[in-house]
Amino acid sequence: MAETVHTMNGTKQAFRLSLLRWLNPQPNLFEPERYGYHAVATNREASAAEVIWKHHARGNSENWHKEWKIGVGMEQVPCGQFEAKALYFAIGVLAYNLAQLLKRRVLPPAYRTVTLAMLRWKVYRLAGKLVRHARGLILQIKADTEKWRLLPAARLQCALLRSCSGGRDEITRGEAKTGSRVAGGRITHLRPSAGVSK
């Protein structure tokens, strides 16, 4: 690993090059070079090793773009008007960012690396029914034990995010245990539907 200063033909402005050299593991007839080289042009003041490491980390952005396109359904825009395309694009970015917030701040650490399709399969796709009872709303769900434990914990984390950002709702320890909280003067509950064990 090394660095140098380089100037292109026809210009007097120089720039910094961070260089990486590695032993060619399989030279062939058309590439008899003993070493392989990789150069990164940069204006950063960090060391050559840090510049190349950060440059290699940028390759992961392609995976983020792919996840955004496939996970949120952005492969094709459904209309031809520019304003409508811009709105559709903004909604897709918002949905992607909310999913990332959910994975990083609400769900357990095991969910941080799952794709949006897997997140939909594991968290969103479940049968449920919203029931009015005693001037309140009750969400009855049909899910396995793992998902049943996950949902109240995720709901509590969402409420904690709101309280940390200046929301007015207060959460008590009792509400954390039962999975209920006060919202707008009403107590809402999350409970399993009949035939589902906790």
Description:
With 198 residues, this protein is α+β, with helices and mostly antiparallel strands. It has three domains: 2-57, no CATH class; 63-122; 127-192, no CATH class. Helices cover 42% and strands 24% of the residues. It has six helices and seven strands; from the N terminus they run βββααααββααββ. The strands form two sheets. Strands 4-5-7-6 form a four-stranded mixed beta sheet. β1 and β2 form a beta hairpin. The longest helix has 25 residues, at 82-106.
State the helix count. 6
Helix fraction by DSSP (H/I, runs of at least 4): 40-55%
Strand order of the largest sheet: 4-5-7-6
The proportion of residues in beta strands is 15-25%
What distance separates the N and C termini? 57 Å
Rg (C-alpha, Å)? 26 Å
**Which regions are unreliable across 5 or more consecutive residues at pLDDT < 50?**
167-190, 193-198
Q: What is the count of distinct domains?
A: 3
Number of strands: 7
Average per-residue pLDDT, rounded, comes to: 77
Q: How would you classify the helix and strand content by structural class?
A: alpha+beta
- Shape field: elongated
Write the element-wise H/E pattern from the N-terminal end onward.
EEEHHHHEEHHEE
Major sheet characteristics: 4 strands, mixed
